[in-house]
UniProtKB/TrEMBL annotation:
Belongs to the disease resistance NB-LRR family. SUPFAM superfamilies: L domain-like (SSF52058), P-loop containing nucleoside triphosphate hydrolases (SSF52540). GO terms for biological process: defense response to other organism. InterPro entries: AAA+_ATPase, Disease_R_plants, LRR_dom_sf, NB-ARC, P-loop_NTPase, Rx_N, WH-like_DNA-bd_sf, WHD_DRP. GO terms for molecular function: ADP binding. The keyword Protease does not apply. It comes from Panicum miliaceum. Residues 201-339 form the AAA+ ATPase domain. Pfam families: NB-ARC, Rx_N, WHD_DRP. Keywords: Leucine-rich repeat, Nucleotide-binding, Plant defense, Repeat. This is Disease resistance protein RGA2.
Length: 677
């Protein structure tokens, strides 16, 4: 299926999903419980619920294109904003309830708690009216849009793959390929390749092929085999991001070889000298995974310390682009990844779909027949085979398998990936969409990500009975199990994960209703290195990732994002905020729920900037880099104990509570995690 078709289908799936998600249901129930008798018992709520269900069915089955898609997209943005507005109002009411409870512990009256913020409560009826009007408008719009003749539900019931029962990764039909590449790494230098008398001690070999063809899996198998024979003294695996920095990758190289953590690169030359010392007279194998088109000078600078190694050292590259391997990296040996033979491909598919399944023999024979036909539709893509098979493994109903076989969406890798994504429950998809805020190959930590999802309210369920951390860990395990998220080579002190590039391709390039930075009105925005652009529709942006920062950008654009919920600054950002700018941020952007920033702490300053009136704040991570290079114990401002919604706090410096608020710590009733140096 082509990108335009996936976008058309995807619009309905995405809109339908969040319309009836547990979060929306809980939002409406909470709204009407606060308004009470002002809105005629619960009849209006039931009417809205009924309308949302009808709207969901219409959105799932609608065929959208051209002008219709533009109109519906505009309506969906308005509806999304209306839900956000209701949520903010309810959050403000909750904040004042918490404040009232903190001040009047002895008084348990819910009514009294509501009365503390009449302004927020007064905004709720008009916000609900706006929501209802937009739901009615949506029904009218969709009634004019073409529906399929049979009006069959376009999606299967969402499922979550059972992480504990998935078979391990396995390599099929690649044994000869593994041995071929190993011979490339062990062969003596040919004419024109580096030898004992040449400047470089290493030569470059490359695996290249289409996305999802199994390049990384093949390279991993080669890497593991080489570990066993210990032909190379040093072995390092590096994932190369699309817009990598020399400092970041050099730091990874140093950490991988030395086993020592390298948080901040203040002097690249010094770090490169240390890396040269570590590699001197050692034969190394360096795998550079998923290299994109990049500046030759950056690569030359990055690889310059490697000349200290011993003769016979190798760099193995995986890339989508043959010209990158040949022209940019100077690869002397190229391995275009071949297709897996059909019988091996089907065997791989059935391994992930049925290995260890407990159904009866007759049932499994039926699954095997249908499974073979599904596998043939996937056009030999190992990535697609694993994703689709694991999702089918979670639902062994043979009718579900037959319906899946009849889906045109499965033709090819990207269609299969999109199908796998849409099988997830809406709150799980929402968690994954949030990850797309981060750049390609950005290093994520599991607990940090779960804490961010908690702060955004993605992990709430309709009942609220289950612990939200457990829900978050389950979501993460689903992504890991289905290869949406990949574990990264890690040291003993920390484990990182990255989003698979194909999912960035899907949600950025193939899905214009989700992608980052492409369409005005999108929730997510990244300020990327080397890209100067105006942030479109400031009132729509709610989640901001900053790779590149300057004062002009802060004053003219960031401070205009009045509905911003997340501001996340990358650790690689060279220019960071001042104390005054951080205080302005807290003062002006009052809907923030997540703040993760780095700022300069002036010499002699011992207080963290005042937080202002951040009623919604749940996640606060601040890293004060002192301009004099000396860290001191910082004092949290008095307002800190008024952050009643706060769940997670992290500060890289030692900190203490302000003397006047020391006794008020007990008011932080939602605080779960406090981290320090």
């Amino acid at each position: 299926m082509d990108p335009v078709s996936i976008a058309a289908v995807g619009w309905g799936i995405t809109t339908a999903g969040w319309l009836v998600s547990p979060i929306i249901s809980k939002l409406l129930n909470k709204s009407f419980s606060y308004l009470g008798s002002r809105l005629s018992d619960d009849s209006r709520l039931k009417n809205l619920d009924s309308k949302l269900l009808r709207l969901k069915h219409m959105a799932e089955n609608v065929e959208v294109s051209g002008l219709q898609h533009a109109k519906l997209d505009e309506w969906a943005k308005k509806l999304n904003s209306a839900f956000y507005n209701v949520e903010d109002i309810l959050d403000a009411i909750d904040y004042h309830c918490l404040k009232s409870e903190a001040v009047h512990r002895s008084e348990k009256s819910t009514k009294q708690a509501f009365n503390v913020d009449p302004s927020s409560k007064g905004k709720l009826p008009s916000a609900i009216d706006m929501l209802e009007n937009l739901i009615n408008e949506g029904q009218e719009l969709l009634s004019w849009v073409k529906l399929p003749a049979n009006s069959v539900k376009m999606t299967n019931e969402p499922t979550i793959c059972k992480t504990g029962s998935n078979p391990p990764h396995a390599l099929f039909g690649r044994d000869n390929d593994v041995q071929t590449i190993r011979r490339m790494l062990h062969d003596a230098p040919a004419a024109g390749e580096p030898g004992p008398s040449m400047t470089k001690c290493y030569s470059v070999a490359a695996i290249h092929g289409l996305p999802g063809s199994g390049k990384t899996t093949l390279a991993q198998s080669v890497y593991e085999e080489e570990k066993k024979v210990q032909y190379f003294n040093v072995m390092i695996w590096i994932h190369v991001s699309q817009n990598f920095t020399v400092e970041a990758v050099t730091s990874e190289l140093f950490e991988a070889e030395s086993g020592q953590e390298c948080k901040v690169v203040r002097n690249l030359g010094k770090l490169q000298d240390q890396l040269r010392e570590k590699l001197e007279h050692k034969r190394f194998l360096l795998v550079l995974d998923d290299v994109w088109k990049t500046d030759v000078r950056k690569l030359d600078t990055l690889l310059s310390p490697l000349t200290a190694g011993d003769s016979g050292s190798k760099i193995l590259v995986t890339t989508r682009f043959e010209d990158v391997a040949k022209a940019t990296l100077g690869a002397q040996k190229l391995f275009p990844i071949p297709e897996i033979k059909e019988d091996q491909f089907i065997k791989m598919f059935m391994h992930y779909a049925l290995d260890g399944a407990k159904n009866s023999g007759q049932e499994l024979r039926e699954h095997a027949i249908v499974g073979r036909e599904i596998a043939r539709k996937l056009r030999g893509s190992p990535m697609a085979a694993r994703l689709v098979a694991i999702q089918l493994r979670g639902n062994l109903d043979i009718d579900h398998w037959r319906r899946t076989l009849n889906r045109d969406l499965l033709n090819g890798t990207m269609g299969a990936i999109w199908w796998s994504y849409q099988q997830l429950e809406e709150h799980v998809r929402q968690c994954f969409r949030y990850c797309i805020m981060f750049p390609r190959r950005y290093q994520l930590q599991r607990d940090e990500l779960v804490h961010l999802w908690m702060a955004e309210g993605f992990l709430e369920t309709a009942s609220g009975a289950e612990d939200i951390e457990n829900i978050g860990h389950a979501c993460f395990d689903v992504f890991l199990s289905c290869s949406f998220i990949q574990p990264k080579e890690h040291s003993s002190y920390m484990r990182y994960f990255t989003i698979h590039d194909l999912f960035h391709d899907l949600l950025e390039d193939w899905r214009p209703d989700i992608n980052v930075n492409r369409d005005a009105g999108n929730d997510y925005y990244r300020i990327e290195k080397g890209i100067e652009s105006e942030i479109p529709e400031h009132n729509q942006v709610r989640h901001l990732f900053i790779e590149s920062y300057n004062k002009k950008l802060f004053e003219e654009q960031i401070l205009k994002l009045k509905n911003l919920r997340t501001i996340f600054m990358s650790a690689t950002t060279k220019t960071i905020m001042t104390e005054e700018e951080l205080e302005l941020l807290f003062k002006n952007l009052r809907k923030l729920r997540v703040v993760h920033v780095y700022y300069y702490k002036y010499k002699g300053s011992k207080e963290i900037p005042k937080f202002g009136d951040l009623k919604h704040l749940r996640y606060l991570s601040i890293d004060p880099n002192p301009d004099d290079g000396v860290y001191v114990t910082l004092t949290l401002p008095c307002e800190f104990t008024k952050l009643y919604h706060l769940q997670t706090f992290y500060c890289s410096s030692s900190y203490v509570f302000h003397p006047s608020s020391l006794k008020e710590k007990c008011k932080l009733v939602n605080l779960r995690y406090m981290y320090g140096p």
